[in-house]
Amino acid sequence: MKEQVLITALKITKAGQVKTFQVRIPKNAVRIIGIEIGGRLIKSPRRDGTRSEAIDVASGNGTIAGEFNPKLNMHAEAIKSLMPFKRNVLFGELKLQSCEEANIFYAAHVMSDENIGMGDFSKKGNWDAHVFTHQQKTEEDIVIVNGDSTIIQGIYKDRIGELNKMDYQYIMNVYVWVEVEAERKGGNT
């Protein structure tokens, strides 16, 4: 048996945007073995209405880790000085559904990891810890669904834009890992 990944990229541009999509499962798939989520923030709005430059964000296990941290209320600066632990930001919600027995077999909140450098004494000044500097291993969420499905239906809903009433532009990637039958060489065995 071999593994194969099926990648679907969703471009989000509006607050509260809902994207529906389909993932075609290959005919030689034995089963779906995992789901992974990733993303990249293209542009985030500023409070004055202008747009900031592009920010790359790494991902793994349903999180988007990066520098982006919208101010959630007026007391954020006072709380930050008392408590260095930051609240993670909800980017969106993802659901995957099979048309066979499994029905809805995966649901996740896509969150930022605002505390990747927590307790890291090398974090000083204007350098921030990131996924790629701290070797955070990204692995898929293990899901076992039989390969009878030929199509998976998906729905993704933007929540960060809806909650902050601003349009964020980002790419959300959904990786569906499948186990496929290996091709046999040489005919009969």
What does this structure look like?
With 189 residues, the chain is mainly β. The chain has a single domain (2-70, 89-180), classed as Jelly Rolls (Sandwich), CATH 2.60.120. Helices cover 6% and strands 44% of the residues. It has two helices and ten strands, in the order E-E-E-E-E-H-E-E-E-E-H-E. The protein is globular, with a radius of gyration of 19 Å.
If you average the pLDDT, what whole number results? 75
Main sheet: strands, sense, barrel: 6 strands, mixed
Radius of gyration: 19 Å
Order of helices and strands: EEEEEHEEEEHE
* Overall strand count: 10
Instruction: Please tell me the CATH architecture by its name.
Output: Sandwich
Category by helix and strand content: mainly beta
Strand content: 35-45%
* Ends distance: 16 Å
The third-level CATH topology is: Jelly Rolls
Shape: globular
Low-confidence runs (pLDDT<50, min 5 residues)? 51-75
Helix percentage = under 10%
Task: Give the tally of structural domains.
Answer: 1
The neighbouring-strand order within the major sheet is: 2-9-6-7-5-4
CATH class membership: Mainly Beta
Number of helices: 2
